[in-house]
Design a protein that fits this description.
Elements: E1 3-7, H1 14-23, H2 29-37, E2 44-53, E3 56-65, E4 73-74, H3 75-84, H4 89-110, E5 118-119, H5 125-140, E6 145-148, E7 154-160, E8 163-167, H6 170-179, E9 192-193, H7 197-206, E10 209-210, E11 216-225, E12 235-243, E13 268-279, H8 284-296, E14 301-308, E15 314-322, H9 327-337, E16 344-352, E17 355-362, E18 365-373, E19 379-383, H10 385-395, H11 399-406
Helix pairs in contact: 1-5, 1-7, 2-5, 3-4, 4-5, 4-6, 4-7, 6-7, 8-9, 10-11
Length: about 400
């Protein structure tokens, strides 16, 4: 069941999404385990009840805080807490992406840096449970494609720790702007909040598109209920489905969905921020120092290219790829260690194959092997370059001689 559809006629909220997952049969342990790994097992309680809205049944979820004095959790602290948690990599990446987007949106509307954002509502224990639980639940059901209907955001105002704020909430508008999320009209609704920053951030990070559902075969539907009483059923539906067998004949993209006994798709997708600057007045040593500073600050990749700039000047195009939430921190590196007066930024998707590092006792000594699984079922093995250099120095051999002696023995 790799395809999911979120229908949200009365808006999006984290607790509604989580309630729908529980209605689909997700066990409590799917949420309690990751929360316990954060050291938060005794700080909240999930209250799940079957209720009705406008005559329609569903599940309503409330996350009760057991913290006597809830702390103001800064994003920098939360990110370290998530990074240290004993979670699967997929869950950690998803939770970091959602909270990172929230931090950037809150920072933009409050005029501060994401690292300094301290979450009142968003970072409270209920929002942590919602975000961790929804990400864990979608992974539990094996969701790889998710399509969400455009949600209505609401109108009027809402009371927050900052006082009354206009609706849609400023962070909701900022998330929608950053990720080009369409918002449905709130005409006909009574004043009030319909879509929360937490709910929209979850869908902005999970949904491949916002719009009508494609042809599909519904398999299971979970219903999550909102807390507000409206003049219509306040609910959200999360449907797990199979693609329609004839979808490709209508000109849609062909997707081969694995059967239950087949191996799932190996490649994983992540969203990275690309930062670039053109430099024409830096020495090679300056460029090397800048590249290392960017790597130390968290860049995933840093590389440079020779370019010809205006008036025939030779220059260097320096590029860094990094997690989007690290954008503000790395900008400071650029301003501090380069002479550039401008910086280009662009969000780019990246697809990666799974890999793991193994230790191999080779005839020349212990080395690390990077083993990569390929979609066709094969594997690719490569010895870590630093270990090759170490063996060459230890045995007074050239790198070519080390490679030749290890060739054919790797397995």
């Amino acid at each position: 069941m790799s395809l999911a559809l979120v229908d949200c006629p009365t808006g999006l909220a984290g607790n509604m999404l989580l309630a729908a997952l529980f209605d689909l049969g997700m066990p409590l342990s799917a949420v309690e385990g990751p929360m316990a790994a954060l050291g938060l097992a005794e700080r909240y309680r999930l209250v799940l009840r079957e209720q009705r809205r406008g005559g329609l049944r569903g599940m309503h979820l409330e996350v009760e805080s057991l913290e006597r004095e809830p702390p103001h959790r800064h994003w920098g602290e939360l990110r370290q807490q998530f990074a240290r948690a004993d979670w699967p990599v997929a869950l950690r990446d998803r939770v970091l992406a959602v909270f990172g987007l929230l931090a950037e949106a809150e920072a933009a509307v409050h005029g501060t840096a994401p690292e300094r954002v301290h979450f009142h509502e968003v970072g409270a224990i209920d929002a942590i449970a919602d975000i961790v639980g929804v990400c864990a639940g979608l992974l539990h059901f094996g969701v790889r494609r998710l399509i969400c209907a455009p949600p209505p955001a609401g109108h009027g105002s809402v009371n927050t720790s900052h006082g009354p704020l206009p609706l849609p909430a400023p962070a909701v508008l900022e998330i929608a702007r950053r990720r080009a999320v369409p918002l449905a009209s709130s005409a006909g609704f009574a004043p009030g909040e319909l879509t929360t920053p937490t709910g929209l951030a979850l869908m902005a990070c999970w949904a491949e598109s916002f719009g009508p559902a494609p042809n599909l075969v519904p398999l299971h539907t979970g219903v999550g209920l909102g807390s507000r009483q409206l003049d219509r059923p306040n609910l959200l539906r999360l449907t797990l489905a199979d693609p329609w067998p004839g979808e490709a004949s209508a000109g849609q993209e062909i997707r081969q969905e694995p059967q239950l006994d087949e191996e799932p798709q190996l490649e994983a997708a992540e969203l990275l921020l690309l930062q670039q600057a053109q430099l024409d007045d830096a020495t090679a040593e300056d460029l090397a120092f800048l590249a290392e500073a960017l790597r130390q600050a968290g860049a995933v990749e840093v590389f440079s290219q020779a370019i010809v700039m205006k008036k025939g000047r030779l220059g260097t195009l320096m590029t860094a790829l990094l997690p989007p939430e690290l954008g503000p921190a790395l900008r400071q590196v650029w301003w501090c260690h380069s002479s550039s007066l401008g910086l280009r930024e662009q969000l780019q998707p990246r697809r990666i194959l799974p890999r793991q590092i193994e230790t191999w006792n080779s005839p020349l000594g212990e080395v690390r092997l990077k083993r990569t699984r390929l979609p066709g079922g094969g594997e690719r093995l490569k010895v870590e370059h630093d270990d090759l250099v170490d063996l060459a120095r230890r045995h007074n051999l050239s790198l070519e001689e080390v490679r030749n002696r290890l060739s054919g023995r790797i397995g």
